[in-house]
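hey so u asked for the seq, here:
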Amino acid sequence: MADKWSNGAVVLGVGFPQSSTEKLAAALKGGGAQLVGFSPCLESNLQKRNLVTAFTHFVVNLDAYGDILHAVDELLALRKAAPEAVVLCVSKSVRADDFGLERRQICHATLRVPFGLERLRAAFIAATENAVSCRLSEERRDTKRLETLGAVGTC
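ran it, C-alpha cells below
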C-alpha cells in the first residue's frame, strides 16, 4: 500500500510556472491529494472567500512575487481568510527547509527549491502537523484568556 501523506488534501498551488505544475500535481496526487489546482496569484482568490475556504492546503511559491513584502501581505490575508488551511511556502531564496513554527503567522513550513518527492513529503507532513499544533495552541490560549476574565468555569 502506498504512503498517503497528502491523503484527502484539496490543494491550491500558487505562483508556480506552467513547467512545474504537472510534476507537483502528480506528486501531490500520488501522495493521496483529492484535488490539486493552480493559480498564478493569491490576490484574486482572496476576494472569493468561498473559493479560498474550499482548499485545505496551499503551496505558495514565494519566488513568483517580485516583492517579499507583497507575498507576506497576501499570506497574512490568506491566513485570516482561511485560518484552518495549511500553508506551505516554497522558495529558492531561503537558506534551508524550515519545518518549525517560527514563520507561523504566514505559513506552517518552508521548503527550499529545488526539492524532490521525499522533501516535499516531509514538508507537507510537517506543515499539516504544525497547523494542528497552532490551532490547539490558539484554542488553549483563548480558553486561558476566558478563564482569566472569569468567563469560564464560573456559575
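The first helix runs from residue 18 to 30. The longest strand covers residues 86-91.
lmk if thats what u needed
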